[in-house]
Amino acid sequence: MTPEKWLENGQYIKYQGHQIFYKTNGNIDSKRPTILMIHGYPTSSWDFETLFKLWDKKFNLVAPDMLNFGFSAKPRTKKCSVLEQADVISYLIEQLNLPPFHILAHDYGDTVAQELMARHYYTKKPESLLSVCMLNGGLFPETHRARFIQILLNSPLGSLINQLGSRKTFDTNMRKIWGDPHKLTDDQLKEYWDMIHYNNGRHLFHSTIYYMTERKKYRPRWLQALTHSKVPIALINGSLDPVSGKHMVERYRELVGDSNIYEIPESGHYPHLENPDQVSLYYQEFLASLEGQPSISGQQGTQQTKGEAQEQKQTSSQDDSPKYKRHLSNSSMTDINTIVN
User: Fold this and answer.
1) What is the DSSP string of 138-199?
2) Which helix (H) or strand (E) holds 75?
């Protein structure tokens, strides 16, 4: 489905005066699981177009464009934080009256999902969030190997760098994070570039990348969302990603555990675009595991026992662990209480 068709078949809600685009695959069927899909930077919900095709008859699918992305509003003066993006997603959930749902997120969307998990944990809300599966993303700021262009955009020079940017620069940087750059066609790159430009959105490159700063500021909160949450978590990761690939998985194992990790050795930063069939297999396997069904890929079965044991050990020891408490300074706890309340 082309971006034009994606737009034509989507809908809008209004959030604080701003139009927020979202795409579904029809009315909610109570007999199917519901999946909320949160895209990454700098692209849009259209990233999930292939998964929509694969899952159209299996799941209820909801994929919004976050504020300043895709077909949603892109106000020139708006520097949108991860916290506000989580507000937008929560508002959409409420307006659509979604039943209990699963989250599948990527990149920047992983960070928004971490904030939603934190809110779910700290506010002790009813069990509306059933699981979270994260594709490649900067879950930990210490392992996020930002591209040089991202560092420049997030600097005081960001506005100038944004003005100097070009389609050629964009294409080059996208190919560098693809597992096999030759599989990323010029037509695909043009479509991504056109969607970024929709509603004059290119001017927002430097303001939307502020999430890199927020990842450092809210690291204790978002790490605790991963280590303390009772919501089942999975990670599907493209190993060749230079930004958040195999090295990020190693850190994930250290901090979170081994459970439900699926690695795609030949994929880069966008596994759901590069290897959608493999992502589909692993994700459905993860959902099946929540119902106690056996693994068919072999990946999960070799890791789950160790992961469950480590998770149990973490749950019993982290609250009193001096090492863990070093991640939770008084200022961080103040931030947490301010956001929740």
Assistant:
1) -SSGGG----HHHHHHTSTTHHHHHHH--HHHHHHHHHHTSSSGGGS-HHHHHHHHHHHHGG
2) none
What is the phi/psi pair of residue 217, to 5°? -60, -45
**Angle between the 276-290 and 299-317 helix axes, to the nearest 10 degrees?**
50
Domain housing 95 = 3-340
Domain count across the chain: 1
Q: What is the pTM of this model?
A: 0.82
The domain that holds 170 is classified in CATH as 3.40.50.1820
Alpha-carbon distance of 61 to 23, in angstroms, equals 8
Beta carbons within 10 angstroms of residue 308's beta carbon: 14
pLDDT in tens, 12-43: 999 999 999 999 999 999 899 999 999 998 89
Element (H, E) at 39: none
- In our burial notation (b when 16+ CB lie closer than 10 A, e otherwise), range 66-99 reads bbbbbbbbbeeeeebbbebbbbbbebbbeebeee
Residue pLDDT, tens place only, 87-133: 999 999 999 999 999 999 999 999 999 999 999 988 866 569 999 99
